[in-house]
Design goal:
Aminoglycoside 3'-phosphotransferase, Chain: A, domain 2, 11 strands, about 325 residues, alpha+beta, about 50% helix, two-stranded antiparallel sheet
């Protein structure tokens, strides 16, 4: 297949490149292709098996680093929610019902197109800590003077490990792990989901935190609270106190990770467009840590070492 004859589509934060054919999308990837092609399709298969709309595999040529998948169109939920005419709360309620369907998935094992078995891993505390370290490894060297970096990194590691131990609920539901409105598509008036390769079995609150505290789409704090309440209304068996504890923790840790990822995307991959989202990621962190005593140590440490001016800085590169 000659990719030069196809229409190149805008990419995402991964190493994949997307091309539109007549009625399909060709995904090309050379780096980390197991995750971005093989596991990506394996998770799609799990979703489709559980009647969740995701891109169906049409053809694959793994040796040539590409797969051909179903085209879900160009209408993202992000675009719908950016439209002023859209009733945002009503649409978010629709997304919550979709998320509830995702969280009912129990399939952990699936056969890949290479005829191997893929088992969906658990979202362990070690993995959460490793993700938080992206902030230490990429963002801190960018904004903190070299002589102070070691102290700040070591202190922050301790604080993060203490916070991780305060997570209450077990890992027992399907977690997309990047559940935000840019990864949701409107396909024939129904919601479909893309960018699925990082799915794990984890905490009930993680994907909801990704949705509500989404760095890509600014929403008001009252709307955030309404979405949160609607989720609880749909999940009445949840212990509300434990759930809110985990939601706040995972939201803060996720946005700390995101600041690290966006810095890495700029520094390593020359994808500088993500830098403009960092100030809002900081704002989301501030909103959670300012309203929960759980974060007193983190709030004090961040306040001492990461100035308001630093957090608001809009980098160009």
């Amino acid at each position: 297949m000659n990719l030069n004859n196809l229409i190149k589509l805008s990419g995402d934060a991964s190493f994949r490149k997307f091309y539109r054919s007549h009625k399909s999308v060709v995904v090309f990837c050379q780096r980390e292709k197991k995750s971005n092609l093989l596991i990506y399709d394996a998770i799609n298969k799990i979703l489709i098996k559980n009647k969740v709309k995701a891109p169906k595999l049409l053809n694959q040529d793994y040796k040539k680093n590409l797969i051909e998948i179903e085209d879900l169109g160009d209408i993202s939920v992000y675009c719908k929610l950016k439209n002023r005419k859209t009733n945002k709360l009503k649409y978010y309620k629709k997304i919550i019902l979709f998320l509830s369907k995702l969280q009912r998935i129990k399939t952990k094992k699936i056969k890949t197109f290479n005829n191997t078995n893929y088992i969906v891993p658990n979202y362990t505390q070690d993995k959460l800590f490793k993700e938080s370290k992206l902030f230490l490894d990429w963002y801190i060297p960018k904004v903190i003077k070299k002589k102070k970096q070691k102290f700040i990194k070591n202190k922050l590691k301790i604080i993060i490990k203490i916070l991780l131990k305060k997570i209450k609920n077990k890992n027992h539901v399907f977690v997309h792990r990047d559940f935000h409105v840019s990864n949701l598509m409107e396909c024939k008036k129904k919601i479909a989901i893309i960018d699925n390769q990082d799915a794990l079995y984890g905490n009930h609150a993680y994907d909801l935190a990704s949705l509500i505290d989404d760095v890509r789409l600014k929403t008001s704090n009252p709307l955030k609270e309404e979405i949160f309440k609607y989720f609880l209304k749909q999940n009445k068996s949840i212990n509300k106190k434990k759930f809110k504890n985990d939601f706040d923790l995972l939201s803060v840790l996720r946005n700390i990770k995101i600041i690290g990822i966006f810095t890495r995307l700029s520094t390593r991959d020359k994808k500088h467009q993500y830098l403009k989202l960092i100030p809002y990621a900081w704002k989301l962190i501030e909103y959670r840590i300012n309203n929960n005593l759980l974060f007193n140590d983190l709030k004090f440490f961040l306040g001492k070492n990461f100035s308001i001016k630093m957090r608001k800085k809009k980098w160009k590169k």
